[in-house]
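Task card 7
Instruction: Convert sequence to structure tokens.
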Amino acid sequence: SLYSRAIENLMMAGRCFSCSHIGLAGPRVMKTCGQMGIAVGYAASLCKKHSATPREVGQRHIAELRKLIGY
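Output:
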């Protein structure tokens, strides 16, 4: 869900949502978005390292990505 299915070399992190401050507390959202940013950053480094697209990183280098993000 962090790379585009239509654009081969596009990754994105974060959320697009609308809710009140009562419905969803800021710290939870910021932590989640931050973790997505970390995962996308590491995935981008693997794209460069392996000359791969984001999809290829997800298919061929997922174990290395998981190790980097502490999974």
